[in-house]
Design brief:
By secondary structure, the chain is of the alpha/beta class. It contains ten helices and eight strands. The protein has an eight-stranded parallel β-sheet with strand order 7-6-5-4-1-2-3-8, sandwiched between helices. Helix 1 links the parallel strand 1 (12-16) and strand 2. The longest helix is centred in the middle third of the chain and has 29 residues, at 105-133. It starts with 11 loop residues before the first strand and ends with a helix. Residues 281-295 and 297-310 have low confidence and may be disordered.
Length: 310
Amino acid sequence: MAKETRPIMGRVVAITGGARGIGKATARALVREGARVAIGDIDVDLARQTAEELGSGTRAYYLDVTDRASFERFLDEVERDFGTIDVLINNAGIMHVNRFVEEDDAAAERQIDINLKGVIIGSKLFIRRAIERGRSGHLVNVASQAGKAGYPGIATYCATKHAVVGLSQALALEYEDRGIDVSCVMPVVVDTELGQGIRDARGFKKIKPDDVAREIVAALRRPRFNVHVPKSVGPVGKIIQLLPERGQRLAAKLFGTDRLLLDAIGRREEYERRAARSEPSRSGQSALPAGSDVRLPEGVAEEQKSEARR
């Protein structure tokens, strides 16, 4: 039975990694629908700029998704400013492209920490709050088509996204009777910084962040678990999964996905440098102007004041 349509107007939505890319596009789409939006990002300067650009009361907050205390503070501050959070969108993520044995161990750890650990922490905190308050809620985990198949050149990234898909499936079943909806978003390559240097696959062009945002809004309006972007990749993927292993490999060669990411190696220097700096650092926590609508935990704020005096 199809679930009833739910209004977006007035709902409180928290988005991780909301300063750019899919997160920013989703925030924009939700603001247009009348949602009250909070964006969390480790790049607080960019988060502030995004919040100011979107307007309509959008607020930005410092958030390190890999740090449970930081995530807890983020949710606390959003609820203090907006009220109970109705929707959490776990969007923050990074992707390093390289041959597996040449991938730096630190790059692998960053992807696991941000793409998987961050989603686990956020999901747990959000669901726990919903249960304690006896309220329904909607959890949206942004995975990838890389969570449904394996692609050479992004083995670790695939591992993290497969884990997010499995986690989301388990949570959807585990908490359905508590009134908590779970959606798993699985786009193809998106035309963002993360998709830098990656060409189109045969039959599937890179999509825009707004395409993903549109489907996320649709899933919030009429809840569903599988959110494939574009929708056509869902049926195609199911057909490929029914093929024997040899057939799946032939399909990868046919669509060019056996080389798609490998061919991008060496063409993503700018993104790779930024992703390598994705851990919390002073450069990502620069002092904010007076009156800024960015909320920082006290420890970070004090560190910034001390740094500014040096």
